[in-house]
Design brief:
mainly alpha, Na+/H+ antiporter like fold, 72% helix
Length: 417
């Protein structure tokens, strides 16, 4: 307290105690109120943090200084960010996803518009390329990163779930037991063989798992979905997706040419294309280059591989649960991720035939938009310098895995076709 002569005197002890008690009480009340308002399952408990975010929201900083209160719009955007990243390590609470999400929506609309004039080019692959080029040519501000992470995780899972509406179990059963056995062999042996080759190359468990599932099941969507279960490093996910794009694109031109050289009929060539090529869009382009009959069977075989994404993720989730620390209080990953359950539910709903064609067309457009947005966000995380740092071993594994899966698919197609 300042006296009349300009000097400072020590306040009486009762004033100090009362002041400290009042400040502590207000901080505790603000912290408890804020914790009750924002705590989500899986988020760290912040009820003991009495001078940080809670104080800032009430206009009291951790040092007792006054901080302007946030507007209702700012509080809503912060709360949206907290919920989007609840329980995710390495992401602070209160992040704002709106800038990055707005950028993703704008680029997605642009890519989908371009895709209307280039029907042979998948908007998913185009979005990855646009994201990678943008990230390496224009330094993206840090404030867009939370929204990009949201798109790469949450929007991807919703898109994968809606992917189930593109297939019916009846179409898959119509392939016959022999072709279904070939599809199961492609996925099981493809993943197993790639994992063994990756271990011999000295790659990490998560890196070879991402490549194995991406090349054996359904490309970038499978690799990103596996990341949602194992929580791999960003560099590993982006490497796997980039390799899917490169080698899947090569297969579009190589497989029709090899089919002609081998003298395969359209049905056999279609089974081979559906079993060997990575992405659904790449299968469509490959089957179309072979012929109309090949295209039909290739898409159905590919969608049969997509169905196996659900049991594969369930097995991976079970393995991750075994590897995780089981100490009390440790949050274990779910055995079957929710978006996988939603994927199977959508496939079952499509099988019933209850949905009208207009609803299916809308769902397909929405699913394409969501996966395109997710692929752009993933592509925006690609850094050429980071890909150079991973070395040639992932590239070698991708080459070996492509040849391995294609060989299994060819042998199965010639037997079952």
């Amino acid at each position: 307290m300042r006296c009349r002569f300009g000097r400072y005197r020590t306040p009486p002890i009762h004033e100090t105690v009362v002041g400290m008690t009042s400040l502590d009480s207000s901080r505790e009340a603000a912290s408890a109120d804020d914790a009750a308002d924002t705590t989500e399952p899986g988020t760290p408990d912040r009820t003991g943090d009495t001078g940080g975010a809670a104080g800032a929201q009430r206009g009291i900083g951790s040092s007792g200084t006054h901080i302007p209160a946030r507007t209702p719009r700012q509080r809503w955007r912060a709360r949206l960010g907290r919920r989007a990243f609840a329980g995710r390590p390495g992401v602070a609470a209160g992040v704002d996803i709106v800038p990055g999400l707005s950028l993703t929506v704008a680029i997605t609309a642009l890519v989908l518009g371009i895709a209307q004039f280039t029907p042979t080019v998948s908007p998913l692959l185009l979005a990855i390329v646009v994201g990678a080029v943008l990230a390496n040519c224009v330094p993206l501000p840090q404030r867009v990163q939370p929204g990009l992470q949201f798109s790469a995780k949450r929007l991807l899972r919703i898109g994968v779930a809606l992917l189930g509406l593109q297939l019916t179990f009846a179409d898959i059963l119509g392939l016959g037991p022999a072709v279904i056995a070939v599809v199961v062999a492609i996925v099981a042996l493809g993943i197993g063989g790639t994992m063994i080759m990756g271990r011999l190359l000295g790659l990490s468990w998560t890196q070879r798992l991402l490549i194995a599932c991406g090349f054996s099941i359904c490309g970038a969507a499978a690799a990103a979905a596996v990341d949602g279960v194992v929580d791999a490093e960003d560099e590993e996910v982006l490497t796997a997706i980039a390799l899917v794009v490169v080698f899947g694109t090569i297969m579009i031109g190589a497989l029709p040419l090899l089919s002609n050289v081998l003298g395969l009929d359209e049905r056999t060539a279609g089974i081979w294309a559906g079993g060997a090529v990575h992405e659904v869009a790449q299968v469509v382009a490959t089957g179309g280059a072979i012929g109309g009959a090949a295209l039909t069977v290739a898409v159905v075989v590919k969608l049969a591989r997509v169905v196996l994404l659900a049991p594969v993720l369930a097995v991976i989730g079970w393995q991750v649960r075994r590897r995780e620390d089981t100490a009390p209080g440790t949050r274990r990953p779910p055995l079957i991720p929710l978006f996988v359950v939603a994927f199977l539910a959508c496939a079952a709903l499509r099988t019933t035939g209850l949905l009208p064609e207009s609803a299916l067309a809308t769902a397909k457009l929405l699913q394409t938009a969501l996966l395109t947005a997710a692929m752009f966000a993933l592509g925006a995380g690609v850094r050429l310098a980071a890909l150079r740092r991973v070395g040639p071993r992932p590239l070698i594994l991708a080459l070996l895995s492509t040849a391995w899966v294609a060989g299994i698919a060819l042998a199965g197609a010639m037997i079952a076709g």
